[in-house]
Amino acid sequence: MPDTERSLLRVAALVLAASASLLVPVPATAATSDVEAKLDFPCCVAAGNAFRVLATITTHGPDPAQDSVLTIPTPPNTTFAGINKLLVDPAAECLRPPVGGTGTIECRESTLTPVQYTIFFNASPSLHEGDVITVEAHASSATPDSNPANNDVTANRAVTLGLVDLHVAASLRAIPFGNDAQVFITLTVTNSGPYTAQNAKVVVTNYPSWAYTSQQLSQGTLFAGSGGGTWAIGNLAPGATATAVLTTRTVSTFFGPVQLTAAASADNTDATPADNAVTLQAAVTPADNVPAIGALEQLLLALGLATAALVRLSRG
């Protein structure tokens, strides 16, 4: 065979070998994504009040994240209050607990774009200053994740007792009652907010000593003593008012003015403490110092009047 033909055959064999190598399938690279959960816990958490958390799910590629899910459980000692969605795929759907309930918030997107949710919770009024609220979030998708370390995030915030503005008002009236005086008291405490007043109370001091004979409280408990008492109101929400209507009787013969001081306070710092206390006096005037008579005295008086009338008739 001539050398030229041999050369051509060698070239043809090389071309065939190269073509065959091109027909070998190359394994496809699997799609991957890097989804991340983020939390921003701004400002404050006050016991008995609402607070907000910003939760974000995003992806760093390289491929789109399909069927992404962001889950946020309702934190302990809180209840769900609401959710707003920002930068959201119109197809995104969020399952959520009922307002005032607990459970897990679950937000889904078919193809992930950066999404931020503003979530509102209510902190339990039984929380105390220094307690910690912990919020957790988890991000996932159907696309394999190249960096699962950033799928979970936790944020903490200490509970504070926000400012309150308590105002106390009172009325005082005294009337004779036998050799003593009967005293009628009305106390009103209002919290102008902006936060719930924790363990609100009113301390009452009085002169002279008296005994409490009746009480009507809109809330709380009265711990009474002869020289005053403490009205333990409990928690008082922003804008709420608590009222106590009390009746007392002096414990010794007394016709001078009676005096009452009522001072309101709470565990919170008060924005305007100057209006937390009030002092009142009520005089039992000499004109009022005709001893009031009881039921027996009224009966004897009626019998005496009736006897006198019969005597007059018999003489007529």
Walk me through this protein's architecture.
This protein is mostly beta strands and about 325 residues long. The protein has helices at about 5-20, 295-315; strands spanning about 35-40, 45, 50-60, 65-75, 80-85, 95, 105-110, 115-125, 130-140, 150-160, 165-175, 180-190, 195-205, 210-215, 220-225, 230-235, 240-250, 260-265, 275-280. The protein folds into 2 domains: about 35-160, ntegrin, alpha v. Chain A, domain 3 (Immunoglobulin-like), CATH 2.60.40.1510; about 165-290, Immunoglobulin-like, CATH 2.60.40. About 15% of the residues lie in helices and about 50% in strands. The chain starts with a helix and ends with a helix.
Question: Which descriptors would you attach to this protein?
Answer:
Immunoglobulin-like; 316 residues; 2 domains; six-stranded mixed β-sheet; mainly beta
SSE inventory with pairings:
Blueprint: H1 3-22, E1 35-40, E2 45-46, E3 50-59, E4 66-73, E5 78-86, E6 93-95, E7 104-111, E8 115-123, E9 132-140, E10 152-160, E11 166-177, E12 180-191, E13 197-207, E14 210-217, E15 221-225, E16 228-236, E17 241-250, E18 258-265, E19 277-282, H2 295-315
Parallel strand pairs: 2-10
Antiparallel strand pairs: 1-3, 3-8, 4-7, 4-9, 5-8, 6-7, 9-10, 11-12, 12-17, 13-16, 13-18, 14-17, 15-16, 18-19
Compact summary:
This protein has two helices and 19 strands. It is mainly beta.
